[in-house]
Specification:
The structure is a single chain. The protein has 240 residues and is α/β, with parallel strands linked by helices. The chain has a single domain, classed as Purple Acid Phosphatase, chain A, domain 2 (4-Layer Sandwich). It is built from 6 helices and 17 strands. The chain has a 7-stranded mixed β-sheet, with helices on one face. The protein has a 7-stranded mixed β-sheet with strand order 8-9-10-14-13-16-17, with no helix packed on it. Helix 2 runs parallel beside helix 4. The termini are far apart.
Length: 240
Amino acid sequence: MSAAPSFAFAGQSFHMLADRALFWPRHGALIVADLHLEKASWYAAYGQPLPPYDSHDTLDRLAALAAGTGARAIWCLGDSFHDRDAADRIVPAVAGRLAAQAAAAKLLWIAGNHDGLTGGAWGGEVADELVVDGIVFRHQSVGGETRPEVSGHFHPKLRLNIRGRHVSRPCFAGDGKRLILPAFGALTGGLAAEDPVIAANFAGPYEAMLVARGRQLRFPCPGRPVDDVTASGARAARGA
């Protein structure tokens, strides 16, 4: 496992992992979002054949992180499966790996907008959200939430120009109150961390964060107050 610097959030100490995950030593919990298992088979069903290895790749990385961190629990923050019919397409080898992972560490499946509660088929517990030590863990950030919140859904990515080369990397997006995790799945795309759709989840400036060579790198995102987003939307609706 790559080096994991400590990361303070909501009065708790986490480890931000370069492998697109969060680890909470206090609870031995590995936290991931948006695995989108069986995405390739979904595309294949609609006539766009892709190599059927995305689920294996995602589960390889998940198992390696669970072993490397010594995780006693794995919390999957929604869209763990690409669609509600994924269970019908999973081959026995992948189903067996999911069952083995559930036996090795306590699995919690948070419902997402894509997958519903299909994770229950492979053991573990299912829930709409989880609250631990005053922090709420859910799939998609909820406007008006007053508690510290960790979520997924938006697949934030950091896009940089380094010496004339455009580089894009999955990243975390957060401030002192809210944290949005990058997508963990092998075939997941992303949305620029500074995109207004992501910025609307924060009350002001926030940061895009990632881990490289054992160091946590932070990049400011200006954001804009939620009231401004609402006001601008109202003006657009009025044709202003």
